[in-house]
């Protein structure tokens, strides 16, 4: 008996559109990374604002601020959440590196050139 193996592209029964199996898992991973980025950086921002508005002083690290946590506890949470945010950002850049390169290559924005520029025969201000 000859069995037909499912192809990489199969039509959806309801809409007739083509679904890419491999792209679906990659897109969901990218979406998960994006949602995680937003969540982690939001928590880092909120804890940073909380620490900014928290009272200063000799014993400020011992007073309860919010949710039964002290300023010292919030500083620890802020540190670890910020570290996680940087790690997720690095993962995001690695996963989307090809997309970033393509976007930069096709961008219509002028490129920043760094280095020595040639003089166009204009007199210098010396």
Q: Helix and strand succession? A: EEHEEHH
Low-confidence stretches: none
Order of the strands making up the biggest sheet:
1-2
Rg over CA atoms, rounded to whole Å, is: 26 Å
Q: Structural class of the helices, strands and pairings? A: mainly alpha
Number of strands: 4
**Approximately what portion of the residues adopt beta-strand conformation?**
5-15%
Main sheet makeup: 2 strands, antiparallel
- Morphology: flat
Mean pLDDT: 75
End-to-end Cα distance, whole Å, is 89 Å
The DSSP helix count reads 3
The portion of residues assigned to helices is 40-55%
Describe this structure in words.
The chain is mainly alpha-helical and 126 residues long. It has a domain at 19-103. It contains 3 helices and 4 strands, in the order ββαββαα. The protein has helices spanning 21-53, 71-95, 97-106; strands at residues 9-11, 18-20, 64-66, 69-70. The chain has a two-stranded antiparallel sheet.
